[in-house]
Task: structure prediction
Amino acid sequence: MSRTTVPFPPARRQTYTFLRDARRTAHVYLLAEVDAAALRAAREAAGRPSYVSYVIKAAAEVLAGYPDARAVLSDGARPRLTVFEDVHAKVLFDRTIDGQRCVLSGTVESAQARTIEQIQAAIDGYKQASVDGAGPFASVRRLQRLPLPIAWLLYRIVLRDPARRNALQGTFAVTSVGQEPVQVILPMITGTLGFGVGRIADSPVVRDGEIVVAPVLTLSLTFDHRVLDGAMAAEILGRVKDRLEHWEQ
Result:
């Protein structure tokens, strides 16, 4: 039987270290269907910013009212929760480094206080940034050059501080597969919350007792059950859904 064995790609070492950390989280998943008609209209009127920008804005505004959901858990024999005032959003990007597709991330700071245009500008900055040399991905590139055991140890040391973890991993994360015909993604997280954005597709919905065709987005929420219970997580997802469905044009 023919086979090929190669070393683990250096461009994916940050994902490998992230997932080792994510396995320590008690993941629970929730799903909600979002009627995206108002969202689509608002997006067209605003010059077509990404749907991810709207999800970031809606989630940040909702989480601003939930201190428990803005907590960073320091695990161990004496676990502690550190609550931060600002709401930072971690965004995932598909990039190619040295011919290898990989996931990189950036942080939109204080997203609850930013406009859609400002959030989109921050996202575009990461999308257009070089993956080599100086720039927002310089620290990741340094991590990729390290042997995996050292990269994992350094990752643990850096994120041991709750403030650093909050700044780098965000109050919540957002990942999207909307560019492909995929309805749902259930992201893994190392923080308290993570939203997954699926593709928007025309689907039958009920409005005022009648069935109509409307654009529908499946929004998922992953939460760490060690930090939040299901009732609060469901309430948060419900309020984000409501905010997206009633977006002002």
